[in-house]
Amino acid sequence: MKFLADAMLGKLAKWLRMLGYDTLYFADSDDDELIRIAIREDRILLTRDVLLCRRRAVRARCFFVDWGSTGEQVRQVMKHFNLKLSRENLFTRCTICNGEIVPISKSDVADRVPPYVYKTQNEFGYCERCDKIYWRGTHIEHVLEALQR
Ligand SMILES: [Zn+2]
């Protein structure tokens, strides 16, 4: 399942990426553009705009996200689409650019992560698109903790 979040939902988009869902987000794009992308790429349009959601072209693939904290919005989307929280899917998508995170060997990140991280972590990944380095350990615990709240 792939998503497209409207300009109001940047934080939600970030969270969905963290959970491993392919989620596009544009800080500025007009409604027609969003509709075109949703259809062309077979994405669910997430929006805070009830009128946009009612438009015939996207009605079937649009989810209106109700007001609430980001955590509450994540909960709405997960519940509606019956998304399960899976440890393996966490951090498979870059939260910055939605690129795919692929494994990278520890020796290749030696000079690119803080020494403490290098010493304590063994699994690393990097974003194919923007080159950001990720490591699973502590990030995952924080995410799970935040989601449980
Ligand atoms: Zn990236």
Please state the CA-atom Rg, rounded to the nearest Å: 17 Å
Shape: elongated
What amount of the residues lies in strands? 15-25%
Rounded average pLDDT? 92
Distance between the termini: 24 Å
Question: What is the strand arrangement across the widest sheet?
Answer: 2-1-3-4
| Count of individual beta strands | 7
> Level of helix content?
25-40%
Q: Structural class from helices and strands?
A: alpha/beta
Oligomer: single chain
Number of domains: 2
Number of helices: 6
Point out poorly predicted stretches: none
What small molecules are bound in this structure? zinc ion
Describe the structure in your own words:
The chain is an alpha/beta fold and 149 residues long. The chain has 2 domains: 3-84; 89-148, Single Sheet (N-terminal domain of TfIIb), CATH 2.20.25. The chain is built from 6 helices and 7 strands; from the N terminus they run βαβαβαβαβαββα. A hairpin with a 5-residue loop joins strand 6 (124-127) and strand 7. It is elongated and about 55 Å long. The two termini are 24 Å apart. The mean pLDDT is 92. The structure holds zinc ion. Zinc ion (ZN) binds next to loops.
